[in-house]
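Lecture notes, structural biology module. Today: joint structure prediction for complexes of four components.
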Amino acid sequence: MSYRENPRPGGRSARVQAAVHQSVRDMLATMDRADVTIPLIAQRANVTPSTIYRRWGDLQELLADVAASRLQPESEPARIGSARRDLEVWVEQYADEMASGVGRQMLRDVLSAADGANAERCSGYTQHQLAALIARAQKSGEPFPTQAELMDHVISPIIYRILFDQAPGADYVRELIAKVMPQS
Amino acid sequence: MSYRENPRPGGRSARVQAAVHQSVRDMLATMDRADVTIPLIAQRANVTPSTIYRRWGDLQELLADVAASRLQPESEPARIGSARRDLEVWVEQYADEMASGVGRQMLRDVLSAADGANAERCSGYTQHQLAALIARAQKSGEPFPTQAELMDHVISPIIYRILFDQAPGADYVRELIAKVMPQS
DNA sequence: CCACTAACGCAAATTATTTGCTTTTGTTCA
DNA sequence: TGAACAAAAGCAAATAATTTGCGTTAGTGG
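The predicted structure, tokenised, for the full assembly:
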């Protein structure tokens, strides 16, 4: 049986993973990304390079794994007022995070890995947050866009701009939301 | 003066670039992507590895450059009938190309390079094609979405799905277009 | 507690990348 | 045209990263 797939909290495998992830985060925060190499990561994490190579394959996969972990939201969308307002606030924060230097880089890391699993993971996180907002609107009976509408017409344009162009502004985000709100 | 930025057609710099690009395309077509290395590319292109390193920096940059070149459209969108029909046909073909294994990989290559110039290049190509369709509609007086609407609500969702999820189908594409067409 | 095995460490072998220096090639100007 | 110049390429040595075989350690299940 594999220790890696679902490693138990205190196990050696989990400790190594935590140390390596931490090491990567530290290094990305303090040094130029081009200087972040597997031997250096290994040294800081007190493991052998071969451990990392065997476990993640290459730097891209490791960075994608770390980035996807960091993109996992820690909490539910904040409760401000109406479901629409909550949505606006959440999306604005989402857009800001993704458009920042770090966010942008994490997006790229996640997408550039050969294994697409981490990209799906990220998209899943976003959908999960949206689902929470939708459930909230349903409970209070407010009209609200569907998840597909939000993904296609709010999230997608934001991410596209970040990836290919420039950062989207706050008013741009609000316009996108206004467009998908029903019976406006 | 630099030979590289705007190399003259017959010059040495252009010959090297062509040979390297061709070599990359051949190798990507025939072998596993993980086995495509700079020394191998150099050998096949009859140049020394250091030439490639000096010129492109690393494999990711080279792949991004080649991918962006391949994503450059060779011709204007086909003229089928109405502007709307032309748009539908063009977008469907665009979506198919991007969703294919090769297209997907080219997208990733373009996005994973540290230098974002090639990503902008790609987005620029798309906008250029759309501009042609818009001009056509204007000339014939047909109602038509703006470029921003097309980028945000047709292109972006397609690319997002390709990058994070699965391939979009032909009917999905037509629905996206139906949604942005004015006075439907 | 013992047997089992996945994951790790170590070190040698291989392969990729960097770099200083030389040579080639194309450009410019007299 | 043809010399002077500059950019890019070649070559080879030095460095760094990656792979791999084998022994060891540490969780797992009986």
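Point to remember: Residues 1, 3, 8, 11-13, 37-39, 49-50, 53-54, 58 of chain B lie near DNA strand C (CB under 10 Å from a C1').
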